Amino acid sequence: MFGRDPWGGSLEISNADSATDDDRSRDLDRAALMRQLDETQQSWLLAGPGDQAGKKKKKYVDLGCVVLDRKIFMWTVGTILGLGVFIGFVMMIVKLVPHKRPPPPPPDQYTQALHKALMFFNAQRSGPLPKHNGVSWRGNSCMKDGLSDSTVRRSLVGGFYDAGDAIKFNYPMAWSMTMLSWSVIEYKAKYEAIGELDHIKELIKWGTDYILKTFNSSADTIDRIVAQVGVGDTSKGSSQPNDHYCWMRPEDIDYKRPVTECHSCSDLASEMAAALAAASIVFKDSKTYSDKLVKGAKALYKFGRLTRGRYSPNGSDQAIFYNSTSYWDEFVWGGAWMYFATGNNSYLTIATAPGMAKHAGAYWFGSPNYGVFTWDDKLPGAQVLLSRLRLFLSPGYPYEEILRTFHNQTDNVMCSYLPLFNSFNFTKGGLIQLNHGGPQPLQYAVNAAFLASLYSDYLEAADTPGWYCGPNFYTTEVLRKFARSQLNLFNLQLDYILGKNPLKTSYVVGFGNKYPKRPHHRGASIPHNGVKYGCKGGFKWRETKKANPNILVGAMVAGPDRHDGFKDVRTNYNYTEPTLAANAGLVAALISIADIPTGRYSIDKNTIFSAIPPMFPTPPPPPSAWKP
User: Fold this and answer.
1) Residue 568 falls in the annotated catalytic set
2) Which of these is catalytic: 244, 407, 520, 521?
3) Is 577 a catalytic residue?
């Protein structure tokens, strides 16, 4: 059947497949729409679903939110990948090709002085020296100490000589080891950063190994300890050779070296306990050795508490050279270190007993030596140490009252160090006179510098900006300036011990352009030339005005007088003799002040508390779930 097509031409109508009215209407609309479209658009509309998909795939890329021309898309992707490969290639070349890095900034002068100060301990070693000792003019010495004494008959080989002689005084030696250990506990990261951690730990172990020989360290209870090896008293006119009567290299000593023991020496025993306890924290990662140190410390502190007495009775050799005025301060000092090493509250109870503090001089505010930290008076150091406990752990009752007292008194001591309070005189050159114009002032100045610098680090780590001196508030930077003023910087000027003084001389041998050339020291003053000089044979080297043939690197000499005067003469030990205790204070002060970046805080806040259990009871577990 054919019908008329209104658009022109004939229209065939199939009877078998006739369209409905709706179909015809749709066809008419479609035809009308096609007349308005261009050729490409018509091809899209007329093409079947399969044909449209094929053409779109070839020419365009559908990214979901946008349709892109396929050529543009491929060019963009290729460009990005090419740039990525090129950048990666350039980075690989940069990494593989050697190139110069800017050198690290040079160490500050505190760090430089510290390296040298530690070497003094190498020069003071007694016994068989390690191959890496680093002091070419020293050798094995006093290899029969203890064994040649008929009353002892055991090896006391090792340890450190005290000063320019060859005597081993255990009282200041133990204090020196405590100070070195304290500095490592607080500033371990600094030592590690400058490559001295292994060195100072080796020095500490050299000292503690010897201390362990001076008593029965395997026993829980002891009845005696060795006080010293060697004798120095020459006041009685005896011609018997000893360590002060003779001027010999330690390697050449052939006279008898008697051993002095004590049976009631609370001060010495408690200081030795402090040394071993502090070192046990330093070596806490070596459990066997740390436990050995703690065991020995317990026996020593127990011995000191049970057998009351001073180690230096009147007229003894100990009283002449290192007299102890009291043992109460050692009870506080040793008790504090025993608590940190063991976590046993019984030691803290002793250290914070009100009566103990009173006997130790905690309330002697009018005393001229109040706040002066020395190998004899440990109370100022003990107060700083226990203030640390209050600042960071705050154990509360029943310790809070005396800890608050120690904390307040530490604040007062820090105030007394500042020139504006006139508690102590200062020389015109700026050196504090903690020993009131007496000889050998530098050892007291470095100890005060260490406490001031350390306490300022405590306050900073506890987020405390400063402290009060009466109604006036002072920032922690004030303490740092005081500490630096005794070592190097004060108001941005070079300072006293390291060179800023009226004589423009460094008092640390080997540091700076000008330093003492004639330290009062037997080993350094006698040539290491293979010739053995007998007891009196070495005196020609003592009396000569020539500089010492061997440089005693890092030794801090005794220092100037109260008028800033200094005589570089070997025969006057009040000017030129270095000591173990003085250099221990110097090392501690230098590491505390040295500008060595280690993190947010200068100190290690937590290691000293590693043996202390949680301060408060563990809360009970939550109740079990309710069941109907």
Assistant:
1) yes
2) 520
3) yes
d(CA 306, CA 284): 28
Of the candidates 243, 252, 577, 604, the residue annotated as catalytic is 577
379-425 pLDDT tens trace: 999 999 999 999 999 999 999 999 999 999 999 999 898 888 889 99
Phi, psi of 545, deg, nearest 5? -90, 0
Distance CA 103, CA 359 (A): 55
The C-alpha atoms of residue 316 and residue 388 are separated, in whole angstroms, by 37
In one letter, which amino acid is 421? F
Which residues make Cβ contacts (< 8 Å) with residue 425, sequence separation at least 6? 432, 433, 436, 437, 562
Name the residue with tokens 């011609």: 239
User: Does the annotation count 244 as an active-site position?
Assistant: no
Residue 474 CB neighbours (<10 A): 17
Helices (H), 214-265: none
Amino acid at 240: Q
Q: Which residues contact 446 (CB under 8 A, 6 or more apart)?
A: 486, 487, 497, 556, 582, 585, 586, 588, 589
390: its two tokens: 């209050």
Catalytic residue selected from 252, 317, 460, 568: 568
**pLDDT per position as a tens digit, 15-66:** 444 445 555 555 545 554 445 555 555 554 554 554 444 444 457 766 666 6
Region 146-154: what's the mean pLDDT? 89
Tokens 């070592």 map to which residue? 487
Task: In whole angstroms, give the CA distance from residue 380 to residue 448.
Answer: 9
Angle, vertex CA 504, rays to CA 498 and CA 509, nearest 5:
45
- Amino acid occupying residue 35: R
Q: How far apart are CA 479 and CA 485, in angstroms?
A: 10
